[in-house]
Amino acid sequence: MSAITTHVLDTARGRPAAGVPITLEIDDGGSWRRLGHGVTDGDGRLRDLLPGGQRVAAAVYRLTFDTAAYFAAIGVDGFYPVVQVVFHLSRPDEHHHVPLLLSPFGFSTYRGS
């Protein structure tokens, strides 16, 4: 499992959001550098954002959720085509889980475990 994971739940449908494309980036001195990419599984989870157990550093990271692709696939007209979550990782030795609670007209996130 990657040091940074995510889970997308579709709160409007009351189920995991499968098939959401997600990109992980790191702030590399003022520009974003891509570290990993993937798509949520049938349980709405993405456990392997970072390839092969790659370690992380204390830094600012960004998760970009392609919600337009997800909503198009389920035939829903969503308001937010992209959700970006920027967070500061200060303890690189810990696991960091960043869930996204999603509906067509809103979203929320938090630091999970």
Helices and strands in order:
Blueprint: E1 4-10, E2 15-16, E3 21-27, E4 32-39, E5 45-46, E6 59-65, H1 67-73, E7 83-89, E8 96-97, E9 100-103, E10 106-109
What does this structure look like?
Helices cover about 5% and strands about 45% of the residues. The protein has about 110 residues and is mainly beta. It has a single domain (about 5-110), classed as Immunoglobulin-like (Sandwich), CATH 2.60.40. β3 (about 20-25) and β4 form a beta hairpin. It is globular. It starts with a strand and ends with a strand.
Tell me what portion of residues adopts beta-strand conformation. 35-45%
Q: Give the fraction of residues assigned to helices.
A: under 10%
What oligomeric state best describes the polypeptide chains here?
single chain
**Morphology:** globular
Strand tally: 10
Q: What is the rounded Rg?
A: 14 Å
Question: How many independent structural domains?
Answer: 1
CATH architecture: Sandwich
